[in-house]
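# step 3/5: fold
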Amino acid sequence: LVGRRRQSSAGPAEPAPEAESSAWPLAAGGALAASILLAGVAAKRERLVARVQACVEESGPQGLASDGASLLQIGGLMLAFSLAQLPVDELKLRLLASGAVQQWGQLVASFEADVQQVALGALTALLEGAEPMAAFNADAGLYSAYRDALPPVLHASPTATPLNDSEVLLDALRLAAALANHPQFEHASTDGWFFERLLEQAAPATEMDSLAALYWSCAAAAASRRSDVAMELLTSPTVKRYLVLLAPPADTLLGAASQQASDEDLGELLEPYDGIVPEAAEQGYGRLQGDAAADLRDSLIEEYSRLALCRLAAHAAEAEEERAAAVAKGWEAAMTEEERAAWYEPFFETHATPPSDEPPPLPPPLASQLTTDEHLAEALASVAACALGGVVWGALRGLARRRGVLRAVGTTAAGAGLFEAAMQLKLSLRGRLEGDGADADGGGNFGGGRANYSTPVRLAAATAADVLVSAQVLWLLLARLRAPFAFGGWALGRAVVLASDLIDVELEFMDDVARRRGGRWGGRACVACVRAAELWSCLMGLVVGGACGPPSGLVGLRVSLTAASV
């Protein structure tokens, strides 16, 4: 009897170790939050930032493309890339002033597809935000540095065709639009060929990607201000054809992409973006129906294309007047019928009158953001992927324990899906609280992201609070809902959609580095891990694609690792 009483009294104390083990998210979250706060304080030091950025210069234009590239060298480059991606005005201004543009520009000349993608992503990230863009526009040296960095993307090599990559193409068009709107652009005279070739090579992408069409038309409208660039564009049948295709009919303001909407609807749609598009009702940007981001993007594409055609028509008229004056003085011969037929375009007459109101120099943040449907599709795809990851992880853990397989699968899948749903809701709420980076002149967060933080400490504080909230949610799932394996399932599923969070660092890049080091066991293990990750991403991509359909379908077929995951 005494023995039974001792066993019964000891029975209720058994769950204590399990309760202690389920508290690990709180401890890990606290440690991670403290580390983030310390990193934010460390980022205030000039020497540390300069040392990290020096990793880019040490890589050199051919360093990562050579067989001598080390994992330490690659890790340093990824750290510098992550530093450029941080949404902190203070850091971006320091990097712009310290020569980071020249250092990243050297890597664009490496003609390695993945290196170019990383370098262009960093160059674009440095201009995101109102303050970095203002600093860029005020510095003629930065204009020269960006202009000198971009030409390699126009040249194909045996290992890369840069503009075939959608991310490289979009970054190049964004930077071209920023260059063409720079005050120094009107005084330059040797870069007309670059804009003509970039717009000609990138024109076919406008049929498939609305964001590419937006920045392509914006760059064309801004570049056609200068007469030498306009004459280059007038000699390109491809550029003229796509401008006509994107522009609205000459007898309408915005064409078929815009519909009438009441003043109340207009106010509700554009209230958060008041001041981005001046006098939206008069310009027609507010005549939106359906999703605000998609409709604004379509209308801006039409307006930029229409403005480019009007400017090209004006320059063509000036050229014809100069030609007529030269013919009258006997300096030149008159055009033959064949020459006139080759020169003349119908838009010379239909777009002879410039628009009364011009669009903003750069697209406002709203035009670059995902539509509501795309946000919902991404969230659903992410939740579905995490739930499927929970199924796999729960099955593995249940089989390892040799009992309760179905229960482990069910609780892990539900826990992983609920945790990801909570994370998506938290991201949505944080985005609403932090704003959208808009400013009055359309030059806010030029990628359409959130507003920047003023200092690294403020970013660290916000991120630490975010981590603590996530840790609390995970602890509730593990301890209260009894889903002990939810985090593992969530981590597996999240790997499928990780590429949508940051600029990609593709698996092929790691595979290539691992092959160069394949003579070592570490290199062979890295290759095996990459192959396993590729197989997993393909499997999850097919399942998630079949479950969710477009636009998230088959998203895992080319899953990439971000700088954080590397």
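# step 4/5: annotate
The beta strands are 504-505, 561-562.
# step 5/5: archive (pending)
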